[in-house]
Structures
1.
Amino acid sequence: MHNTRLAIILCAAIAAPAAAIAEEEAATLIGTINGTPYSLDLFRLYYAERVQQNQDQDSPDLQEQAFNDFMSLVVTSQEGAKRGLEQDPEVTLTLELQRMKILANAVIAALAEELQPTDDELKTAYESVKDSASRTEYKARHILVESEEEAKALIAELDKGADFGELARKSSLGPTAKSGGELDWFDAGQMVAPFGAAVTTMEVGTYTKAPVQTQFGWHVIQLQDSRKSEPPSFEDAKAQLTAILQRDKISKKIAELRENALVDLNEEIVRVSPKEEATE
């Protein structure tokens, strides 16, 4: 019953999509263990969770291992029932908590299907975020030194025509020194505030005429280029917007369920603040 051949025989049944299973096969058993029948669908669910948790690919070896682990789970749970452990207070609470979680997740999945955003809602959401998604990106390089005096001396050399990259390779303390101070394209908000603020006021091709201080030291910055980062198209953004609007709709529905719930709290255990009392 635990051999490899049986596990491999299960392969086709496990891999078959649920939609392809005829209604009359819904009660198909994987087996009867100690007089208790267990459905193939139950094992399918166990196997799907196993694949997801371990991020594994379906394979005969994994099916064999999962089948053997499922059999161990069956006989161990049966032993727990024999011992009456379902009546243990902690076990009872754990089972109830798991039941609540499973039902809640099922409701959320159902709501996600029911609360699909309309095209108009998606287009409105897109228009509201499109402008904020547009941003300016900068290409720059910098020289980082310990003191303001060193930075001023470097600026004086640049004023005399020194090459920025060569000065960076020779003097910069930053990790970009070996590449002549080169930075990847960045949004000003990604940088520490003084650095980002300085870049936004510069013209392409210029360098800072005064050192810029940050918590890392003193910077001399050269702005090499800037560009507008265009927002994604409506079609490209549609999937993400759908997920965002669905989450918002689900949150509002859950808030509505809470608002309409008849709640009688044990005031000896749960103390409601005056603000919450006023809301009720």
2.
Amino acid sequence: MDKNGQLTFTDDPLLNETSEIYQFISEGKFREAIKKADKLMNVNPEYPGLIEAYRTAKFWSNREKEVRKTEEGKKTADFLMEEWENYEEYASGSGMINSAPYRAAMRFIFFKASNHYKLAFQKNEDTVNKFDLLIRLGECFLRLKEHQYAVETLEYAKNSYSSNARLLFILGESYYHINEIPKSLMNFQEAFLINPAEVDLSLIEARPIREIIAIIIDSGKKYRDIREWIPVYGVIHDIFYIKKNINKHHLEILKSEVYSLENSYVKLSKDEIEETNILPRMLNKYLWLYDYYENQNVNPENTDQIRSRLLNLDYDLFHEYFNSPPHKKRI
């Protein structure tokens, strides 16, 4: 007790013992965690975090036998990641997401999975899917907040697999957390250009992306998939303020993609357009072309044509953008 007679943390007889259960979980000592949680629940079954710790330890204890008999390397790592998805669903339904036991389990499971992915990579295991190994390893590091390791892993993978949206958005998130903001934004924008559907928003904590999502929500517009509109709103609100220069090969690909999207777009009814992702993807690609002709290979005629087309496609969205002061790349 303190001098006013209030209960302090040091007076709480179960605090240290409950913290010990969390420690057991973070070390993978699930049986010890179950035994201690069971004992404490006989003392105070309502104690905060106790039932969550028991359920978490029980969940993973039930999978220890399967882990032991699974081949080390990729198979064990994949099993752990698949079971983590099952645990997340269970934790969400039980109100345990982001609880102390949840975080403790995450630390153990992802460290263990990352070690097995590293082992698989070192053994040159399953070379056909080595890229998948690196992506999963990068995601493990991201979830563990080991962002420098995530960057090193994914930059290595990027040397051979640069055009992968999942790689790029995880890399963008990781760069953000080591304060490499221009690199973060560049990777995010490339990811959204390639395939917004591969961006897992549950992994995104980066403030620029969260800001864009908030702007879209505040707009009151009900979009089919908010991910498709993030790159568009990111540009018009000057949050995606830096882009990678594109070479002639990528320029031709962009132009071809826009041409194909336009051909499909004009054949669709308004309702059909709203049921697809064709409009935001076309707008995003047009914005890349606009940036190219405005800043990289100046061509006023092309920029005027693209500006007119964007205004025609969504006047409300682009009118203010094109009438505001020139946007500067803040680096």
3.
Amino acid sequence: MRYAIYFTPPADDPLTRRASHWLGRDAHTGAMLSQPIIEAFSDALFSELTFDPRRYGFHATMKAPFELTEGVSESEFLAAFEDFAARRQAFTLPSLVLDQLGQFFALVPGAGSPELQGLAADCVTDFDRFRAPLDEADIIRRRPERLSQTERSNLMTWGYPYVLDAFRFHMTLTGPVDREDQPAMRAAIEAHFDGLLDQPRAIDALAIYVEPVRGSPFQLHHIVSLTGSATRKTA
């Protein structure tokens, strides 16, 4: 069993519903959904291009998937997660916009947000005590030879390369898209999400997703609202 800390809008949010339809699966319920018909892509190709984000569900990663370390129970982890959320204040991003991360398409903030960067950093550091160390296969899977020095250090220290200063909030919509197909994919995404982007987006909850077996679809397990002060407890 692996756990991950994600941001995702509520199940009934129009963005969640539209994104779940795009991906072909609702991670809140586990239901498989029919995907939109995209004229520029065959059904089979479109399904293939959305395979990875469909498995993970519509989300932004705050702490990447990890197994619980030995001696820690799920109930302890959930209790700490609820306490964490109770001490964080909700905030609002000015907008989400469509962007490309290399060959991938994703929704990203329309402007920088210190609150978002701080929340993500706290998720990484505060919950690392619950994370089992990576095994050799996990490290190899991340291809450390292709990472920068900072990213390699993050991988070994925090279990994931793209954290802290290397973190970029993104809600993935595709796998890698060939260059010649990228204009058509951009147009399809813009049409599908018309009216839902370029508007304020509340960051008012965090969710725990679980992967019951390696390679299986991630499922929503627990979601909590950010209800308290952003000031952290001190010893």
4.
Amino acid sequence: MTIALNRDRLIHIIKRLLVHLVLLTGALFSLFPFVWMVLTSLKSYIEASAAENFFPSHWLFSNYVQAWNQVGLFPRYFENTLFMAVTTTLGVLITSSLASYAFARMRFPGRDTLFIILLSTMMVPFEVTLIPNFILMRDLHWIDHYEALIIPWTASAFSIFLLRQFFKAIPSELYDAAVLDGCTHFQFLRSIVLPLSKPALVTSALFTFLGSWNSLMWPLLVTNNPVMRPLQVGITSFITDAGTEVQYLLAAVTISVIPVILIYFFLQRWFIEGIARVGIRG
């Protein structure tokens, strides 16, 4: 009996070790590109171009200062990106909260049909809407303006779907009690629904912020003035006809990644909870 228990325990420990080994291997593979990027950003131009040594022979932290100063508008790119990402995220949270509440808690003709149509827009590739959206921005005279960078992306079908799943799971008894206290739909949304849906709101905000922060194709299309360009477009300045300054390029990329990593670390608890709970919502 004791021998069988010890054998089962040993098998259980071995299985757990194998699982942790697989997870650790996957984590190392995922982390490798980031480590390579940081180490290459600290190399000289010759070392970075040759890519022979994994570690730099001389750690050139001055590459970050040079990357920041070499493109004169790099601080401006950073400011544009931060303003664009924050404003777009706030816009998505506002529009998605209102639309999700309507789809989840309000009854009106064609509600389910409209929701299906909304979900179907998620299957339309971004490239299909690129030209029509650009023509619209041109006709509105929004080229080289923040409106073109922000307003087209202040509504998200994914965020509406995500928040709707949470809003539907809130007990109807809470709404009935709120109505007895004289609450309107908007007061119920603001005072009860939104505080109970923090994980979903954080998840939506993170996805929106990340997408806006890493946006390249659309800003490149609607901005001609370098002063209006965001960070990802500005980073392409290190790629010239004379060649790519790899060490400065990767230093600039590292700088652009740091804010996203910090935001994720601060909000990861709500983000993981939001992703985990959305799968069990009806």
